[in-house]
Amino acid sequence: AQTVTQSQPEMSVQEAETVTLSCTYDTSENNYYLFWYKQPPSRQMILVIRQEAYKQQNATENRFSVNFQKAAKSFSLKISDSQLGDTAMYFCAFMNPPNFGNEKLTFGTGTRLTIIP
Amino acid sequence: NAGVTQTPKFRVLKTGQSMTLLCAQDMNHEYMYWYRQDPGMGLRLIHYSVGEGTTAKGEVPDGYNVSRLKKQNFLLGLESAAPSQTSVYFCASSYWSSGELFFGEGSRLTVL
What we know:
The complex is a heterodimer of chains A (117) and B (112).
Chain A: E1 3-5, E2 10-14, E3 19-21, E4 24-26, E5 33-39, E6 46-52, E7 60-61, E8 64-69, E9 74-79, E10 88-95, E11 105-107, E12 111-116
Parallel strand pairs in A: 2-12
Antiparallel strand pairs in A: 1-4, 3-9, 5-6, 5-10, 7-8, 8-9, 10-11, 10-12
Chain B: E1 4-7, E2 10-13, E3 19-25, E4 31-38, E5 42-49, E6 56-57, E7 65-67, E8 73-78, E9 87-94, E10 102-103, E11 107-111
């Protein structure tokens, strides 16, 4: 079974600074998908960024980017120019490639990020 | 569009009582999921469905049952609630196995 580990339960950073959240995973698969989800204090979770394992290029979405190290099974999230609205719980997630009956995400335990004004 | 709607949002039960959580989505998604979120444990998958009339067990299915009689609805039932089922429950849906899940706002359940 796949496992996802987030070793930083809590982090805080000053507004406008850059912060990196760590995630490692364990799998024997060669092709898979990785995600970062954000859960703001209002609780509705939203997708931040997605990475496909067969793509060598790191995914980016505006101020959010990932550092995907396939050999090390590492998938960190970098938030640049952090904003107060980035305060949230962030979850790393793993998914096997599409295969009927196996389409589900495995989540890490989350990192609570606080942006300090 | 409402997206994914969960009802009720809050509920207090006594041990042994039963209840049903309703999840409704208006995006015509094939896939629907029920997760529970507990402090320090992230989200754990209870049951999921890959289409109308189908259900499958997730990581922590014991004590729960589900049904997907209509494509837009996914029901999570607790037949005999236990204090260990105190949690926040999240429903989610996706168009296909894209991994992009759309979540509801959550339902906080307390079992006394």
